[in-house]
């Protein structure tokens, strides 16, 4: 196989959706491209911004943090699993926070919990369900404890009345 054919394979793969450099590399290896062909293809793709891990991170964060209301810790983990370097993720997060008016993590988690479980009676089962859902959504343990603590205090206040 030559570099042109490897490049065509990569472009067809990218036509469906944006991918990370790591995802494209893995795909090209699976398609039988050599290391030299892959290196040349990735250089071409990066030069013309067909793959750009920082732009990918920003787009992924907009979707995860704003639209899906996911947590920062889980979003960073997911990006790392996609093969993006930690420094690139951190740089993109700093850029994202500067560009977007992102509310405090705990406030976003509390809002997600309230919108997911609108009810007046916060029993132990509901509080445990909220905690599991927030962990699933990618919020870190400190944030989950803080939000669950709010629900527990609310429950105690209602019980005292």
How is the topology of this model organized?
Layout lengths: L2 H14 L4 H10 L4 H13 L5 H15 L4 H10 L4 H14 L5 H12 L7 H13 L4 H20 L1
Describe the structure.
27% of the residues are buried. The radius of gyration is 21 Å and the shape is elongated. Helix 2 packs antiparallel against helix 3. 75% of the residues lie in helices and 0% in strands. It starts with a helix and ends with a helix. It contains nine helices and no strands. It has 161 residues and is an all-alpha fold. It has three domains: 3-47, Arc Repressor Mutant, subunit A; 53-99; 105-160, no CATH class.
Q: Strand share of the residues?
A: under 5%
Structural domain count: 3
**Helix/strand-derived class?**
mainly alpha
Q: pLDDT average, as an integer?
A: 86
Which stretches are low in confidence, meaning pLDDT under 50 for 5 or more residues running? none
Give the end-to-end Cα distance, rounded to a whole number of Å.
Answer: 76 Å
Beta strand count: 0
* Major beta sheet summary: none
* SSE string: HHHHHHHHH
């Amino acid at each position: 196989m030559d570099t042109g054919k490897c490049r065509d394979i990569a472009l067809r793969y990218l036509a469906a959706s944006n991918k990370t450099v790591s995802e494209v590399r893995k795909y090209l290896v699976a398609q039988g491209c050599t290391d030299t062909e892959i290196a040349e293809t990735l250089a071409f793709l990066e030069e013309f911004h067909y793959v750009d891990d920082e732009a990918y991170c920003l787009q992924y964060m907009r979707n995860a943090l704003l639209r899906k209301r996911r947590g920062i810790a889980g979003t960073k983990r997911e990006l790392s699993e996609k093969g993006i370097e930690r420094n690139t993720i951190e740089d993109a997060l700093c850029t994202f926070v500067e560009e977007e008016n992102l509310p405090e993590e705990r406030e976003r988690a509390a809002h997600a919990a309230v919108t997911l479980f609108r009810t007046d009676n916060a029993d132990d089962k509901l509080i445990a369900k909220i905690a599991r859902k927030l962990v699933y959504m990618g919020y870190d343990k400190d944030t989950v404890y803080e939000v669950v603590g709010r629900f527990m205090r609310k429950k105690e206040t209602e019980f005292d009345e």
